[in-house]
Structures
1.
Amino acid sequence: MTTLPTSTDRKLGLVIDLDTCVGCHACVISCKGWNTENYGAPLADTDAYGANPSGTFLNRVHSYEVQPANDAPAQLIHFPKSCLHCEDAPCVTVCPTGASYKRVEDGIVLVNEADCIGCGLCAWACPYGAREMDAVEKVMKKCTLCVDRIYNENLPEEDREPACVRTCPAGARHFGDFADPDSNVSKLTAERGGMDLMPEMGTKPVNKYLPPRPKDRDRSEDVDILAPFLEPVAAEPTGFLGWLDKALTTMPGGKS
Amino acid sequence: MHPAPSVILFSTLSGLGFGLLAFLGLGVLQPTGMGAFIWFFIAYALAVGGLISSTFHLGRPERALKAFKQWRSSWLSREGICAVVALLVMGLYAIGAIFLGTHWTVLGVVGAVLSVLTVFTTAMIYTQFKTVPRWHNITTPAMFLSICIAGGALLAGQVTLAIPLLILAALAQLAHWVVGDKALEASGTDMGTATGLGDRGTVRAFEPPHTGTNYLLKEFVYVIGRKHAAKLRIVAMGLMVVAPIVLLALTQLASVSGTADHVLAALAVISHLVGVFAARWLFFAQAEHVVGLYYGKR
């Protein structure tokens, strides 16, 4: 059934902290690894060792440069992007077969790969590029929020969160229930002004992005307070190097 | 958007086929026996040929029958159902015309409405996408429907109807281009809203997430041929509308014999078909999906 549920019991999703992300791509790799070995069809790579490698990924990290208008220093912002598990997910309603669906119990958007005809319309409907057609399996792949980890009682408790969150060395990714106002993700969103991507698309994303803190001033001219105590660097060479400099300068052609 | 040949062929051929079916169903021309067989054969070859071609863009065509299930929310599902019902109803009407020499008026009108409705559902598949501002406006269904009806009139040999309908189709196509060229800017979506960083400065894509290409870039960030878009638009319009009108006008001259008449009409149809094909190629190739903004492209 590809009509959307009017509400979901829980709203599981991610908070991604753009202030903390260092752009290491560890989440990309752990996602690819987990989702190739577990839920659904593996994520294919084509021509992996050739001239034109291409592959399916459910999470990708872009990097943007933001240049403020007031000539303040530019900021480099690493920007992980995966499915936002939208409340008003346009990818679900376009599906002709019912393969795409949003779960009533936790709001996760999933694809039933056995029903997917690979028409690609859900990827067309997604403004975020969160869905990719697998080049080998010919079915649509997307982030499952690691549905096979978060409820998996065979895993130690600390591993029952999405692979990307579990692996992030910077603590830039947080997983939780947005329907609960006291959850870690709800609190982070409230404290740090968590934002939606392309709110004008009306998709009501569940995942929130925490904006990077602005750089307060230009530090490029700053000098360490200990600098005056450091041994001065000789501007003119002395000793053997001084003699060599003079000798070479007096040689023909040395003046230039 | 990637201009997949299977989808372009589908919308071009099926549009024309369903247009012809509409004119047959409305009884604008009422052939019987062998004549009816030839007319319906042409219409079905175009409509069904287009539909079959559309299944080639599916990753899993063997599961295509599952696509009839979600008519409550999915335009693709509605299109599939509409097409099948239209073809069945018009099939009954064709049996009456070919074997019994009668025209069941009510059945024909229902079939004609369903045929046009099928083209409307095709148009709505594209129109529904907010993610492609160029398509997300009323000019898309207006263009698809007017070209379907004009093509139907042309193929049905209705010279006096075809000329004004072709002019109408040209206007709809022009409107689609004029509105579409400003649509992305008018949508308000840019790299700033895509990243949520727009209010702190100018956002520039610094590094893409991957060194090679991927599905998203191939499917949604198709930029080949945009350089020649203006020329292609002139070619498309010339072949789709101008040449057929000139050829149709020639058939009206008293000095033209019956055979030459048919040759000119056939040329007009072929020219129209090639023109629509070019216009549909541009429809996809020029369409900017907002996901391109994440890559600093559109």
2.
Amino acid sequence: MPKITFIPYRQEEIVVDAEIGATVMETAVRNGVPGIEAECGGACACATCHVWVDPSWYPKVGAPQPMEEDMLDFAWDVRATSRLSCQMKVTEEMDGLIVEVPERQA
Amino acid sequence: MSEVHTTDVVIIGAGPVGLFAVFELGLLDLKAHVIDILDRPGGQCTELYPEKPIYDIPGHPVVGAQQLVDNLMMQIRPFGPTFHFSQQVETVERLEDGTFRLSTDAGTEFHTKVVVIAAGGGSFQPKRPPVPGIEAYEGSSVFYAVRKIEAFRGEDVVIVGGGDSALDWTLALQPVARRLALVHRRDDFRGAPHSVEKMRELVAAGAIDLVIGQVGELEGEGQTLAAALVKTADGTVKRVPATRMLPFFGLTMKLGPIADWGIHLHENLIAVDTEKFETSEKGIFAIGDINTYPGKLKLILSGFHEGALMAQAAKRIVDPGKRVVFQYTTSSTALQRKLGVQ
């Protein structure tokens, strides 16, 4: 199982086993990662599962699709490696992925 | 003055659960008025994910969210519900005889025997951008909607956002503003191509400023805003004069005025029993995502079930003493007549 490291705001990092095919948001929620609200349940409709992908990982994860890019307009402190975690599906290649959780979700 | 609608039941929320409640109430000859803050039926299904497939509606291996809403509208048509869109119920007052008087922010009034809250995640409200201290300026310098264009005349207006609302108001307020700046985090806009084009023309002509970046801080005194500090992509901060700011950051869901109606809440949800889905106030029911009880699942199908049981209890309130005979739509000619079956 790929391992994902979440870095919540001002808290210890959390390393979890992720199921291939699940979204990074689902992985975070199942493991009680603080700061991921996912208000809309993963419909790419709220921008409350915003994460900053570690810059070294961003090329592998890839850029958001147009719909996600639109939704990122509603997120707080959007950076060059911002993604909505509900739109990132876990793959074998993501073993070791590091994402940071912003201080707040909008 | 505004007229008062007299009815058996007022349903607050026109999402799938509110719509199906019309059906269950209708089978028991109860008339319903349905109120929603949005301008059309469907609630979250229509507003958030109309194209998304739903896989757990019994009897539908897969159904699109908007399709489900369309089907429900067809299913409840025989009962002729009256819809009141684009308004929010503000007050619910119990009268001496136990009935209720409701009023909306549009001034519509209702006199009803039963209230059904099917408000899902709450009402859709403009999202407050996460800018520290913005609350202090709300209502004086910061607004989430334009009520009167005149209020922006001669002001330094900053509009934040990249969708249709931001673009439409940029075009509408540019002629009256002293200076108008449109702030968006990227140089790509979601709005209608025609509006984007017109906005670009104004920028090219020097009539408005386009600032690419995110508002990080506000500058001002007391309730009077002076400037927005915009963090641009290269990390520099640009000071944009702003005596009026209009952030368009989409919608979020808030419980809203429901919290003031004296109903017992549990963690921002309405506590109900599981026999009638009645709240702590007799005659006020809550069904769908907005309610909570032991074992609650936020599924559309649970909301349908809750509506069916609620309707039985509502019937006893509206027509006390009348015997309710339980019937099936498959075999009851009385029910089929109500449904318009030939």
